[in-house]
Predict the structure.
Amino acid sequence: MRKPFAIAAALAATLLSVGMGTAHAETVPGCASAQQIGTTGYVKYQGATIASVKQFAGCGKNFAYTWVWDSYARNHTYRVSNWIAVIDGTEEYPGGDLRSGTKQELWGAGAATLDKCTRAVSSVTVPGGGYVSGWTDKRC
């Protein structure tokens, strides 16, 4: 009698978690073997999280990844940009090309920075023409 109840509870929990947000694949275009490194960073606006930023490593490069959250994407016109930043002592500079666009998901250009300390950085425009940024932790 307990087994059917446990199965039903697990199924209900799964269905509830699926309904919590939009699922999306996180596979680097052209480099399916790349894996996320470090923590996920968040872009916040007026106290609300509006986007996630992650750093992936694979195929000899680091990649920035940004996902604009549904709650922001549905109600705003925005532009998103991301890049890999190199951290060298107290200096921080772009380690590769900046990418930008108006889609909810944005993969950054691969940066040949695996031998450097890096972080992924993302900026999202907000009403009034400004922008807010978020970043991952430093990975060496």
Observations:
- Residues 2-18 form the longest helix (17 residues).
- The chain has two helices and nine strands.
- The CA atoms of residues 34 and 58 lie 4 Å apart.
